[in-house]
Prior knowledge:
The chain has 403 residues and is an alpha+beta fold. Strand 8, helix 12 (331-348) and strand 9 form a beta-alpha-beta unit. The longest helix has 70 residues, at 106-175. A 6-stranded mixed sheet has the order 4-5-3-8-9-10, with helices on both faces. Strands 1-2 form a two-stranded antiparallel sheet. It has a two-stranded antiparallel sheet with strand order 6-7. The chain is built from 14 helices and 10 strands.
Amino acid sequence: MDTRNAVQQAIEIFDVMFFPFLPNSVGTSLAQQGTRNRPETGNSIPPSNDVVRNSTGFRYNDDAKRNKGDTVSLRIGSIVSWTVGVMCVPRQSWAGVPDALSGQSPAWAIAALAVAAAVITGWRYHCLHQRLEHGMAEMEGALAELRDRIVDQTEALEHAGEQLEAQRHTIEELRLTDGVTGLWTRQHVFRVLATHGARALRTWVAWNKGVTKNRPENADLLIFIVGLDKLEEATIALGSEVIDGVLCEFADVLRASSRTTDVLARWGENEFMVVRSGADRGLEKELAERLRKSVASHVFRPSDELELSTTCSIGFAGHPLLTHAPEALSWEDVVALAQAALDAARRTGRNSWVGLVGDASTPSEGLPELLADGPAGLIAKERLRVVTSLDDGTTVQWGSPKP
């Protein structure tokens, strides 16, 4: 047997034995050639119309192609095809096995080398597949661990953000809180006045324009400025530490005499502000008198060895000053009127309250200009009404208008 015939016979044997694993380019040509060269016996392999090829050249049946994930079925089919191929090898080909084992049959020797190469290739594929599965498992574990770490870090960041927000809120409160009395500062009360003043103004403007039919109730903003009497003299006599204790107790008296919704603030060195929103201006005198009596009847104890008594003066006004013309004055102008009323109460006799009330006789046109020099001019013309706790017949002493 020459070399060409040996190679031809080896290819024929290998094609029959490993029919399921041959690539497209080799399998087709060799199968056709092997069919022509084989004798017409009952052991020849009949052609199959079910064989198809994928893009890699390996041949699967239709079911295997549609179910590529079914690895077990594919392997079983390959084993069955290989077994059938071995059984269908011509007898004269099996006769050359002894010669191949003794090195005298080149065809069987080449086929044995091909079998060894196929086994080694399959084993290499199996090892690579196992490494790939192991790597995928490690990657999934790493991804799960990374997701857990991201969740933990996100929760930690959210918690840190909440703590920072709480600290910022605390710092903001400390910045807007008086360090001695614990009341709000002047800066904070300005924000409150702007907010509640705008709300009261909208309510009364809507009523005047006919948007609402019923006259507003509890829609006024009441502003009280309270000052401790003779605090400067007491500071000189007793010292600032003692007076700080008096101011702390005075803040407690204000809290006890006010509603929880009232805004209490330190307005000046010895002046405090009480802002009541959503109130009826008819209650101004009642609240002012309650504050005055509370302070006058309280015994201040800044220390264990010291007891003090003092009084207060109060000035107040309501916003809007004119309900029939709510936009005639701003809340800043109403605060100035309450300050002027406090100064008049102190100037007249202390331990009293004075309030300014607008009515139908109060002009609305150019009112800010008329009050630029103080309310004394309008009061003298009876265009601005004064209410006070002073005895009848006592004249409230207003500051002289500027020349």
